[in-house]
Design goal:
The protein is of the alpha+beta class. The chain has ten helices and six strands.
Length: 488
């Protein structure tokens, strides 16, 4: 009976874990991203980026989703950036540190064993009795001791602390995934923006060339008396305005190249061979669409918020355990002798064994308020989790609206560009025959310029919307193997 009493009591105490047991919040019950179902297929348009796109429910996302754009320079740039980017390296190191903290906390499950040797030279006052066997006031003493201490985890405080640290490490894992997704998304968006700027620069140069031809026509007509000086001056002003728009575009292109270098972990002075054009990017024709219930499993920010909530829940248990009695078992064995060579001789040994029980009786309310603070942090984390979920669903909804709207905008932009080009061609012929005024010609020019730039921007918007949707749905991190996530 007595032989079973102690281990049974210890087992019952060990099974006691105070504090709330964490349960993941329920997934959103909604099944769509708008009050009415969104169209599953977008409008198609001619030219680069004009393909129709189809939303495929529950389509899996590849870990390297950017390869769906079928751009070899982009694939190579991202592969290189993942090896040199400092942010992903820092996230990897933070994840390793988080798991090392988990391992360190696991050590609290085991007894702590210390060993030490203490050689001393001592002098005793004449008014005191000498502790030395010889009675000398000067003597040497060498003490060697092994001590063991152990605090049973009676209330599960250590288990809750470990649970919190594991959750924090998992949160850091999803922080790594978010860093990875942000990097790859920024790189693809930077490539798209560079392609858009190059197309806008080409269109602007074409516009300037055409304006130079019109200016020369008006100058010839002025020489023949068929055009006024005011008309020529207005056309020259339009020409210079067209030339002036090149500088801001070229500045933005240079800054975009600097951004690509920085994202790749390089200096702006380093050469990046990749050059991007809209024609080199292929718009994916199938886009994934996940239900909100699945979205919370895919988004790194939502998963990270969930782990932070888990960590806060466990810390409530830690705070409660700190308010309860604690038991510490200690033991020691050693030897003390006047000479180190005599440590193992008979009569020099000593040992001790003891247990202490301590309970907080009065601490000015410190432990109580720490528990309340932990409970408040838990409620805060719960609210932040709900906010993160709502923002994630809103993010996807916004992108889905943009996918539909920008597809229609591109189709309209192409029609507007063709109409403006026809109008300009007709106006050019009429100007040569003197059938229209210079003001009418300028209006036709401006309409064409706006249509050309608008078409380029509309094409780039569709690529950017596609990138935004892959990002909003989590980026397929669960399928990637190119960046190893450190784990214990």
């Amino acid at each position: 009976g007595r032989a079973l009493l102690v281990p049974t009591t210890c087992a019952l105490l060990a099974a006691c874990v105070v504090g709330p047991d964490y349960r993941r919040p329920a997934a959103p019950a909604t099944h769509d991203y708008a009050p009415t179902a969104l169209p599953r297929t977008t409008l198609a348009a001619a030219g680069a980026g004009g393909s129709a796109q189809q939303l495929v429910r529950n389509m899996d996302i590849p870990g390297q989703w950017w390869t769906l754009f079928h751009c070899a320079p982009l694939n190579a740039l991202i592969d290189d950036a993942l090896k040199h980017n400092a942010d992903t390296e820092a996230a990897q190191a933070a994840l390793q540190a988080a798991w090392e903290n988990v391992r360190a906390q696991r050590g609290a499950y085991f007894p702590e064993v210390d060993a030490g040797v203490e050689p001393t030279r001592q002098k005793i006052a004449h008014v005191l009795a000498s502790p030395a066997e010889s009675g000398a006031t000067f003597y040497n003493l060498t003490t060697a001791q092994v001590s063991v201490s152990y605090s049973p985890d009676l209330w599960g405080g250590n288990r809750r602390q470990l649970e919190s640290l594991v959750a924090q490490a998992n949160a850091q894992r999803f922080q790594l995934e978010a860093t990875y997704l942000t990097l790859t998304t920024n790189l693809v968006n930077a490539a798209i923006q560079e392609a858009s700027l190059r197309a806008q620069i080409d269109a602007t140069r074409s516009i300037v060339t055409d304006q130079e031809k019109i200016t020369a026509t008006l100058q010839r007509q002025q020489a023949l008396g068929d055009a006024s000086e005011a008309a020529v001056a207005a056309q020259q002003a339009a020409l210079e305005q067209g030339r002036a728009t090149l500088q801001p575009l070229e500045k933005q292109l240079a800054q975009q190249r600097d951004l690509l270098a920085a994202l790749s972990g390089r200096m702006p002075s380093d050469i990046i061979d990749a050059r991007f054009t809209l024609e080199a990017l292929q718009l994916p024709t199938e886009l994934p669409l996940s239900l909100p219930a699945r979205l919370v499993e895919q988004r790194p920010d939502v998963r990270m918020a969930g782990e932070q909530l888990h960590a806060a829940s466990a810390l409530v248990g830690v705070a409660i355990a700190n308010r309860l009695p604690n038991v510490q078992i200690s033991a020691g064995i050693g030897s003390a002798a006047g000479k180190a060579s005599s440590l193992l001789t008979t009569g020099t040994g000593f040992w001790s064994l003891g247990t202490s029980i301590a309970a907080p009786l009065f601490d000015g309310g410190t432990l109580k308020h720490r528990q309340r603070a932990a409970e408040g942090t838990y409620r805060q984390s719960a609210a932040q989790y709900r906010s993160t979920v709502i923002n994630a669903v809103q993010n996807v909804a916004d992108v889905l609206h943009a996918v539909q709207s920008d597809a229609a905008a591109l189709a309209s932009a192409e029609l507007a560009d063709r109409a403006a080009a026809r109008s300009l061609a007709i106006a050019r012929q009429q100007l040569a025959l003197g059938d229209i005024s210079a003001v009418a010609m300028l209006n036709a020019e401006q309409s064409w310029q706006q249509a050309e730039i608008g078409l380029v921007q509309a094409r780039a918007n569709r690529y950017a919307d596609t990138v935004a949707l892959f990002q909003a749905l989590g980026g397929g991190w669960w399928n990637r193997h190119d960046v190893a996530a450190w784990s214990p």
